[in-house]
Amino acid sequence: MGQVKVNGHTNGHNGLNGVNGHSKEDYSSFLTRHRPQETYSLTSIEPESFYGKLRTLYANKVLKTQLEQLKKQGSYDAFKLKWHPVYDVRRLYGGKARTDGIPPSLFWESDVGKWIEGACYFLSSPNAKRFSHACEFDAAIQELVDMIEKAQQPDGYLNIYFTAVDQEGRFKNLRDLHEMYNAGHLLEAALAHYRYTGSRQFIDVMIKNVECFMNQFGPAENQLHGYPGHPEFELAILRLYSLTQDRKHLEFAKYLLEARGVKRDDQNGETYFVWEAKQRKDEIVAPTMDTIEDVWYHQAHKPIHDQEDVLGHSVRAFYLLTAAADLGGAFLNDAKRLWSDAVDNKMYATGGFGTEPRFEGFSPIPHHLPQSTGEGGCYAETCASIAVMMTSERILSHELSGKIRDVLELCLLNNTLGGGNLEGNQFSYANKQASWGNEDEIRHDWFEVCCCPGNVSRQLGMLGGYTWSVDLDEDKKTINLNIYLLLSATRTIPLPNNQSATVTMKSDMPWNGATQWDFKAPEGWKWNVRLPKPDYAENIKVSESTEEVQPGFLTLSLASTSSLTQSFNMPIRLLAPHIATGQDTLTVARGPIVYTAEAYDNEAIEAAYKHFEGVGITSNTTFTEIEEIIHGIPVILLQADQSAYALNELKDDQAYRVVGKDHLARSWRKLDKGIKFVPWFARANRGGKGHLRTAFLRADEALAQS
Description:
This protein is α+β, with helices and mostly antiparallel strands. It has 18 helices and 25 strands. Strands 15, 16, 17, 18, 19, 20, 21, 22, 23, 24 and 25 form an eleven-stranded mixed sheet that branches. Strands 3-8-9-10-14-12 form a six-stranded antiparallel sheet, with no helix packed on it. The N and C termini lie far apart (78 Å). Mean pLDDT is 93; it is low at 1-23.
């Protein structure tokens, strides 16, 4: 490979020296930091537990619903490359952008890929025999793989839209048109398929597809220097390298990360997306942009090493950071820096991310977190919380942090699980914290762009891989076990010489903080265990002596055959947001579960104060816990013991009022009832009109006024 000038400086491109001129770094730990997609099948989750019941719902109902929707949508048969009427909707010519958005069929490979991937995870789990549609899913997977194989072009290219509709647009618009994104999801599906079936049919197709991209894109002078507009391909290529251990796959993934946002002299001093738009003579600006130079939406405004704030589309940002954290080295620091900005400055209480509906992403203003359309935004896409889970797990694979573990759990139990209803037939894309105007927060059967439903299925399918991680020290015969999630499951741990160890965890979480473990390993082995110390837990008790070596984790050593218990209290908490939000509100939480109030449980209050606008609770509110079953899933509802309050000034039509000793800025009316709260993930499951509110005004002044 030759040398080119980047920002006026010559940088080498030999081996793993990247386009930013960074020196070689040690990636030797990459192959030992196993991924959830590789280890999930070693864990058997107890079917009658909270998580087990959710997994059964997804295996028996949700995957079936999604398969039917894919067939109805047209994406299931699209790999036959025949014409479909939907191709005329916002049709593309030469890959040029449109002012009214992109074609609804542009993502079909990813929809199919995520379904295959999720189905393979469930079908290869230890309790797969319990799932009622296993044979049907197996047949559908094989039919899809056969169609995908036949759809591949002789040079390895594989894309429905740019083969059947706009052949001229192939590789013309990486910024907007998702060729690499779709390939990434198909590659992840192929990896799951290979691990499930042992067949190389699908993975060989995708390796050939990867080689097609590698021939076209890279740092060499005779290549285009592009990268995904929507990150995903990077993390999938890294996962491919974990399987193949072919150095060229690692080099290509690293190139995709390093090339992003770089201004090159051989691109007229522009970043790739700007140069690319000018090459296709495309003067149209996509709806998510203001000018063609405006590429922060794609996280391409600067090289990732130079990005100080997390900006743009929230899912894209965290798919990118997942790859960065997985690769490690300097990219791990980038992932941690931008993760911290998002979590500390741009996260909703429910583990939701993204305030701006226009571009489904982050506000550049720290702590700008509107709760509803009426407050100026709120999006909190389901996929964004899943992407944060992915990034969090990859950071944890390098170093333990209780804060990162807590965020992973928060995202899972709230915004991620809340992405589907508990009947298995409706889903949410955006997850606004409050309804407003004529809106409701009722889930939908499907979406024109349906990325979120399949993503939730994938997460629950590989949940065992998120539960814990294992690292063996064979010389010291030590099993290092890091526990991330508290649930009921058994993990099998392969050991040298065809031996194995097991750990069985029985937990009452997420409703009660009691967990016990049984450890069994061959004689001569020992356990080094790290238990979570959640930030919401009080009065933590462990049956053995522990030490907090890493913040948020309790470390202890155990003999080969041992038992252990942990317990803690989870008091109900009232959470106040950062003062910079400008919101004087309280959000109810119990343990890792965040709560919301629905019109369904509070009909009279919501009828008088639509969407609960102007309704408040006090900081000393106490609650009565109510156990309930919603569509077979056990939950705890919370009934406020004290009455709620409502602002008298809510309906005042004056823009400004004089206030003083005798004229308070806010005065409150005591209501007849207290508010009943439901777990955020369980909202919109029992009927009703879909009106809700999560953060309520803090009404402490009412106590003084009374």
